[in-house]
Amino acid sequence: MSLKIHAFPLSPRAFKVLSFANHIGIPYEFVLVDLTKGAQRSPEFTTLNLNQRMPVLEEDGFCLWESNAIIQYLATKKPELGLLPKDERARADVSRWMFWESAHWDSSCATLVFERFVKGAFGGGAPDPKEVEKGLTNFNRAAKVLDQHLKGRKFLCGDHLTVADFSVGAALIMAEKASFPLEPYGEIRRWYASLAALPAWQKTLANSAAMATAA
Ligand SMILES: N[C@@H](CCC(=O)N[C@@H](CS)C(=O)NCC(=O)O)C(=O)O
Q1: Which atom of ligand 1 has the smallest separation from the CA of 53?
Q2: What is the CA(53)–ligand 1 centre distance, in A?
Q3: Residue 67 Cβ < 6 Å to ligand 1
Q4: Pairing between strand 29-32 and 62-65?
Q5: Average confidence score pLDDT of the chain
Q6: Ligand 1 mean position, distance from CA 170 (Å)
Q7: pLDDT above 90 (res 210)
Q8: Rounded to an integer, what distance in angstroms lies between the CA atom of residue 137 and that of residue 140?
Q9: What is the DSSP string of the chain?
Q10: How many whole angstroms from 54 Cα to the centroid of ligand 1?
Q11: What is the pLDDT of residues 153-174, one digit of tens each?
Q12: Residue 215: its pLDDT value, please?
């Protein structure tokens, strides 16, 4: 079995996959997709993902893109960890939050990350105030839902950590860099602190910067 993860580690979508793989302790080969050099548009990478976006998982000729699909697939490799529940309703709940992440949370966080961090860091100019405003409106709308839902719950889907926590939590690695307005959302901050304390979360964050410049 050879498992490869093609990613640009500074991205929260890559972090989602790398931190989850590290958490479940599955061996993988990391392959850098250097977005700063347009590696996602190379013919080789395009054969892995026609969308020309990372992350991508590759395993003995099986190719999977979309970070949520990837971490759900990885979770099936260690069923004993219970990160993707077997019970149908519990699993549907996990899927619900991962769809929510994809449809609402990821995009509102990504707008703020792009305007307030990526543009500055990669020579894209100043933030566009209209885009920032739109990002803040969407962020607050989604954050209110998340914060309210987390009240009385240790994790997103109850008392146990699941793949949904990695899905939704990953965007928050950019909270400081993109100045996410988290101050009113105490439940999100409490929940995120428990994710950030996971050894795999720490390890992935610590490795990300170095991996982004790996040969
Ligand atoms: N929904 C996808 C989003 C993937 C995505 O948009 N990746 C971005 C970086 S965060 C990318 O590779 N962009 C390259 C490009 O747009 O050229 C996922 O979660 O995997």
Answers
A1: 12
A2: 4
A3: yes
A4: unpaired
A5: 96
A6: 14
A7: no
A8: 5
A9: --EEEEE-TTSHHHHHHHHHHHHHT---EEEE--GGGTGGGSHHHHHH-TT--S-EEEETTEEEESHHHHHHHHHTT-GGG-SS-SSHHHHHHHHHHHHHIIIIIHHHHHHHHIIIIIHHHTT--S--HHHHHHHHHHHHHHHHHHHHHHTT-SBTTBSS--HHHHHHHGGGGGTTTTT---TT-HHHHHHHHHHHTSHHHHHHHHHHHHHHT--
A10: 5
A11: 999 999 999 999 999 999 999 9
A12: 47
Residue 1 reports pLDDT greater than 90: no
Burial letters for 118-127: b for 16+ Cβ neighbours within 10 Å, e otherwise? bbeeeeeeeb
Question: Is the CB of residue 52 below 6 angstroms from any atom belonging to ligand 1?
Answer: yes
- The length of the chain in residues reads 215
Structure confidence by residue, pLDDT tens digits, 9-32: 989 999 999 999 999 999 999 999
